[in-house]
Structure formats: structure tokens, C-alpha cells
Amino acid sequence: MRKDIVFEKVVDVAMAVVPEEKNGIEEWHAYLLNLQPKNLEGLIVSSKGYGNLEGKDIRTSTLRQFFENVSANDFVKIELIDQAVLPLNNEFWISYWQGNKMFDKKFVFVSESIIPGLFTDIPLLNKRGVMIR
User: Where is 25: in which H helix or E strand?
Assistant: First the structure.
């Protein structure tokens, strides 16, 4: 049972949402950044959007992805984010292993937080975007 699993504290792992131009069109991508000197093994990422938009409660479908290994000081592109859901809360819940220890963390980009006014330099990507650590 979940209550019987001891989850360790996640440190030096971050999520970033970054705009990128492709063929003259702006696209937004979510990345997971492993800023640790250790690999992440068996990474599962669950993502969804939710909130209120123009007076309507909105929930996107939940996407799940699996990455066998994320190398130390490296990143993986998680998904393309539709611009229509940027104003919503965008949640990414990660779980992974290091050795025999399990780690688990939820990252939530709250409503209206994915905006250029909150951009910062994103390590490893050498791009600007919004990051949660």
C-alpha cells in the first residue's frame, strides 16, 4: 500500500516550461531537469491541467510517460503543451528510483504563472522559461 512506502525528499530535480520557435510558430514544451550527480531510474511522469477558464471548470486528460533512465546533470523533454492550457494549473507528478529508494514529488505551475514576466535562465537547456525546483 502507498502508506507503507517511504518516499525520500526530492532535491535538485526541476520542471521547466519553455517557449520554442519551430517553423515560425511558438510552441511550449515541458522539461524535467536532473540537476543531481546521480541518475534517475524508472521515472514516471503524470501530467494534467485543471482550473477555471472564462467561468468554466476545465480538466484536461491525464498523460503518463515513462523514462527508463535520466542521466545525471541531464534533461528530458516531457511533452508539448497546448497554448490553450497555459492559463490553467499545470501539474506534473514525478516518481523515480535511485538505488533501492523511491522519490516522489508534485510540481504545479499555478494558473497564469507561465508568462514571460516570470522567465528565468533554465540550467542545462540554455534557454529562458519558467522553472519550479
Answer: strand 25-34
Q: How far is CA 34 from CA 52, 65, 71, 111, 113, in A?
A: 32, 16, 7, 25, 22
- State the DSSP code for 124: T
The grid coordinates of residue 103 equal 522519490
Distance between CA atoms of residues 41 and 97, nearest Å = 5
Taking residue 83's Cβ as centre, other Cβ atoms within 10 Å add up to 12
Each residue's pLDDT tens digit in the chain (133 positions)? 566 677 788 999 999 999 999 899 999 999 999 999 999 999 999 999 999 988 999 999 999 999 999 999 999 999 999 999 999 999 999 999 998 899 999 999 999 999 999 999 999 999 999 999 9
How many whole angstroms from its chain centre is CA 107?
Answer: 6
SS3 of 55, please? coil
